[in-house]
Amino acid sequence: MNMNLSLPGLTLKNPIMPASGCFGFGKEFAQFYELSELGAVIMKAATAEKRFGNDTPRVAEASSGMLNAIGLQNPGVEGIITEEIPFLKEHGMPIIANVAGGTVDEYVEVAEKISEHVDALELNISCPNVKEGGVQFGTDAGLAEDVTRRVVEASRVPVYVKLSPNVTDIITMAKAVEVAGASGLSMINTLTAMRIDPKTRKPILSNKTGGLSGAAIKPVSIRMIHQVYEAVNLPIIGMGGIESAEDVIEYLLAGASAVAVGSANFKNPLICKEIIDELPNTLQKYGFTSVEEVIGGAHDESTENRVFRS
User: Fold this and answer.
1) Are the CB atoms for 224 and 162 separated by under 8 Å?
2) Do 193 and 205 meet the contact criterion of CB atoms below 8 Å apart?
3) Mind telling me the catalytic residues?
């Protein structure tokens, strides 16, 4: 079974990678399996300076999912370059850096520094669990286009833009970042959500709102990817509630070229490896001979045989 595929900046041995924010920088998960088995890894978000994140509580359970408002806690871009990336490079899989910021200049600063050390960037313009930055860039097409263009100009590697589902028209956002020079998309980020504790009569999260992830958002993500695949000529890394090889195939049929597994890592730290091991048999079950054969299979012939720019 041919599991290989090539995307801008990325040569993948399989289409499975952990999603940003759900895998840290890989050190904890390396205790459970060899990270080189992954198609790639998307690191936890990097900001210009060290961030401690939001006050606790920062996570809450939800039906078929979870809410988080971590607030982009991270050691800062210099700490990531010095302490985290060398460990990941020892395992020999492509590394995607998630770039975040509160201003365009911060995005550019982080991109300039970290792009020298990784294979691609995931531009996080859509994080719903911080009070500043992120959300406004991810929900305004003009701002999204501007920050994408600036980061593309600053980056040494291809840029994948992470799209927010918290918009009226996802196609408008996808077209805006395509025009700005994005090499690909990752979608979707979490849905803005809230839970309230009846005992205290207050929101459970200290940030009041957070991002909903998990199986609950999978149908939303599938729908948006299906729409965007027909509207732009960019490869898509799909995410949202992936817990099995069957889920992966559904994402590929919708138009994703690869997938990222997110909150399922918290329930089962072996989930990525299990999906990788399961995928060849599941592809064969549905009559496929390669991963590439599945991509966009839920669309008509006009969207076949795409050539993505490197």
Assistant:
1) no
2) no
3) 127
